[in-house]
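Risk mitigation, structural track. In case the binding assays with coenzyme A fail to produce interpretable data, a predicted complex structure has been prepared as a fallback.
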Amino acid sequence: MSTLLQDGVAIRPADAADRDRLAALPSAIPFIEYPAIIAVAHGQVAAFLQFRRVADGEIEILQLFTAPGFRRRGIARALLRELLDRHAGISVFLEVRESNAPARQLYESAGFSTTGIRKSYYSNPYEDAIVLSLILC
Ligand SMILES: CC(C)(COP(=O)(O)OP(=O)(O)OC[C@H]1O[C@@H](n2cnc3c(N)ncnc32)[C@H](O)[C@@H]1OP(=O)(O)O)[C@@H](O)C(=O)NCCC(=O)NCCS
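Fallback model:
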């Protein structure tokens, strides 16, 4: 079942039939083996959020990506909301590059808070990761 956004963008879990559409995204490469929630517009994937369960009651967001032509329309926020709605009461963790202001702004506005820093976690270029979490009790 899909959630429909105002401008005709449908949000729903990805299935096997979406594999080619996901592969056609301009830059982010989804991991085949993990579940994803996607935003579909005019038959193409406009954005996806990929995650994994790390423990009972805990999810890690692996990737969140909106194709450049679809940014600033609330799609990433809607994907996050869908994840939280589909996994009520779960705690969510992720890492983000320290310099990634758009993503940090998005997560902070969604209620995430900083729980740690992983030094030089990223390469090309080397950069610290900010660990963010949304702990729901
Ligand atoms: C970060 C990213 C996923 C945001 O996607 P999006 O669909 O454009 O995000 P939304 O439209 O849902 O934005 C929601 C909020 O995030 C914040 N935000 C998003 N893009 C922003 C930007 N360029 N600058 C500042 N804040 C930004 C704002 O608070 C925004 O709310 P507002 O538009 O009401 O001000 C997208 O820019 C992207 O794919 N970036 C490259 C990949 C990436 O960095 N992923 C995150 C890795 S953890």
